[in-house]
Amino acid sequence: MRDVTAGSEAILELLPMVFADPGEARARAEHVLRSGPSPLHASIAHQVLGIWQRDFGDLRIALRHLRRARDLAARAESADREADVLATLGVALVHAGRTRQGVASFERGVARGSGHTRARVLYRRAYVWWVLGRHREALEDVRRALPVLRQVADDIWTARALTLRATVHLALGAVDRAVADFTAAERLWDTTGQEHDKADAVESRGLAAFRSGDIPAALRLLDEAEERYAKLGTPTYNLSIRRCEVLRAAGLAPEALAEADAAIAELDRIGGQSTRKAELLLAASWAARSAGDAHTAIARAAVAVRLFAAQRRTWWETHARLVLIEARVAAGRRSGRMVADAAAVAEKLASFGSPAAPEASLLAGRIALALGWTADAERHLAVAARSRYGGPPPARVTGWAAQALRARAAGSRRGVLEACRRGLDVLDDHRMTLGASELRAHATAQGAELAALAQEVSLAQGSPRRLLAWSERWRATVLSAPPTRPPDDPALLSGLTAYREIAARAEAARMEGRPVPALEREQRRLEREVRSRTRHMGGAAAGAGYRFDVDRLLDRLGDGRLVELVVVDGRVHVLLCGQGRVRRFAGGPLDQAVAEAGHVQAALRRLAHPGAEARLPLVEEAGRRLQDLLLAGAVPHLGAGPVVIVPPGALHQVPWALLPALRERVLSVSPSAGSWLRARETEPPPRGRPVLVRGPGLATGGAEVPELAGRYGTATVLEDDEARVPRVLAELDGAGLAHLAAHGTFRADSPLFSALRMADGPLIVHDFERLARSPYRIILSSCETARLASVGADELLGVVTALLPLGTAGVVASSAPVNDAAVVPLMLALHKGLDAGLSLAEALRDARAALPADALHQATGWAFAAFGAA
């Protein structure tokens, strides 16, 4: 260790070292105190330890060190030393929730300091004003400090002041000013060794990217900042707060809530900053409300309100009150008092210049509408609607939602549809900036209300065609955009390889009955790493999405029918497309249909095992009940041709071939009418070759594959050690027909990690997304490969929806666990039909009919469905 007891200059170096190398600074300061220093040197050492504990440890210990540093500075009779310590102590007191004492400490510090020291004190007071939400005072103190810091060429403190001013600008919605200050600060940081400050600058740029509407860049920068902090061994509470905000805006509210709660627990464990705890509670309450957990949101927000009030942080308290009122409304509470409270919050947020003010006005208007107070609602909604023409996408969407509600209250159906169209256009452009299919899917949740309002008006107008168009407007949008391939990122590729190896080892250990907690922890860590890196992808240009055309759909259907199921206000409506027109029939309650579908899925799982034959009549009866709920009066009008079913996300698990009216038909399923139309118009590859893959561990050993290999003389066959993920992907790319016999697993918690088991581990959805062109037709002879997770407004994530945008026109997959032995004859019969020139849907119908009539084989046939149009 370098000798830091020789002189003041060496000891003064410890102060900037706290943010360059925190651990080393702490060790050196403790060494100084053991060496019997003078009061001046001891004051510096205690201040260093106080800063370390304040920012990275126990705030109570920090206050003890800083009070000792203050007293020693007074004994040393150094006014500037005392002023500097008073500023550091002031920051710690405010973070401890002792706002009045902290501000008083700053008053003494400003009075005691002079010149350069006084400028540093002013900067730190500006930081405290920002913490307290007093942004104008913060900007004023930075304005006074910056010229002095620049004059003495203090690059470190000048960069800190610029970073702080940029952060304040962001809080006020002035993104361009913030970016300019961040850029200037970064140029200065490049000339210093302040690694912690550099990490903070990257974190701040992430926040600026988010405020500019660039979520992928924000996530990338926040992840980079976390890596930098990790190297320094410093906690990341502020980073967690910012990441929660970005995750929530990206539609990943449960993930944001988990991060906030984990950070709160860690902060409590070490006795950390009370101010940070309040901010984390606010982040957790926002996340819980967005995740639909109103009661958790209320609990977190109520504590945050109390803490902010005790800390005299009015700006923060007002934001916490907003989420508290929103959560109470989500829990079903409405009253005149809540209208007044929301209006007061909106007024106060507007006075702060907060971008959240329109959201509060919209909330007041919603509550007033629910109470029938139309005049009050109009007043508040009119204020909220002003944001529709400017600001970031969420603010504009808020404005268009307010405008749509105004139009509905005024009885203007045209006004409602125009506002919905404009709001969804804003979200379309925003969604297209996202590269990851996961983020695109979750982002649609922000447009759910607008889409529902437009459907409600279309239904009231009695126009089935318009109801179809609006239902398609915000359904399966992930499939409507050009896919973004993951970059050739070596870290991502190595992460995928490592994940596959660990997952394979964990699976082997489980099969042997050995405990695998360490392997499972590493698997979860690698999942987080892969997920994070894929979220960094940017999307295509705005306006690059696909527009649905009803006339083209009707023309392409020929003598077939397309049945789109639409849910409006909890009831299913059947839109029957065909014969050049769209007709509507009333269905049943959605919740009843979902419950019935769940019962059927459970029964199919039992029928996959011998000995459950007695349940077959019960399953068939459930199919009749589902038909009454979901097809109702449309059944007599289905015609004799092919039928395409387009269910909402909540009904994607229905085994449609079980319904009596569909059992003997050429039947296919599609996430949306638009995706079926695109599949119908997809051309097969000019020299598409067959590929047959046999994974390990199948009860039958994938018995159909050798027979199919003999049938397709030119097929590429991958089995045993050749059925490894890199080789499988290489052969699948551009194939005309692919047949994969492998164990499949569906991950409801993380659908893009749903997998097929290969020789070297799982082939996951993230792997499929790397294909330049997925096979034109693909048959997944596996369990649960057709299962999908419903996210966002009406989006589906899983293996099938990953393949459809990548060039696949048709998929056969199973929505339930199936019996391996019973699958073999089904697959052989299916390929026999394909040999005869049939489509996947035609071949699957004939294959079902060729199966034995016992319960096991019948259940197997119903579990499989044809997706797409090939």
TrEMBL record:
<feature type="domain" description="CHAT">
    <location>
        <begin position="621"/>
        <end position="868"/>
    </location>
</feature>
<dbReference type="InterPro" id="IPR011990">
    <property type="entry name" value="TPR-like_helical_dom_sf"/>
</dbReference>
<dbReference type="InterPro" id="IPR024983">
    <property type="entry name" value="CHAT_dom"/>
</dbReference>
<dbReference type="InterPro" id="IPR019734">
    <property type="entry name" value="TPR_rpt"/>
</dbReference>
<protein>
    <submittedName>
        <fullName>CHAT domain-containing tetratricopeptide repeat protein</fullName>
    </submittedName>
</protein>
<dbReference type="Pfam" id="PF12770">
    <property type="entry name" value="CHAT"/>
</dbReference>
